[in-house]
Amino acid sequence: MINEAMQSAVLLCIDDDQDFLECEKAFLETFGYTVLTALSGKKGGIGFSPFG
To answer: CA distances (Å), 50 to each of 13, 35, 40, 46, 47, in order?
Structure first.
């Protein structure tokens, strides 16, 4: 049974291997997660700081 917190969780997966990302996304979605993917940290927004 998938709990309510898991159903509303959004995960960001970053990897430079598109095939791996697609498999990882499909797997995590079976558990009720919403999965966003990016092929690099830059594309995933990693490194952004609201503090400068």
So the answer is: 21, 23, 20, 12, 10
Q: Where are the domains of the chain?
A: 4-38
Strand positions, DSSP E, the chain: 10-14, 34-38
Task: Give Cβ neighbours of residue 23 (< 8 Å, ≥ 6 apart).
Answer: none
- 7-44: per-residue pLDDT in tens? 578 999 999 999 999 999 999 999 999 999 999 877 87
Q: Distance between CA atoms of 5 and 23, rounded to whole angstroms?
A: 23
**Cβ contact 31:11 at 8 Å:** no
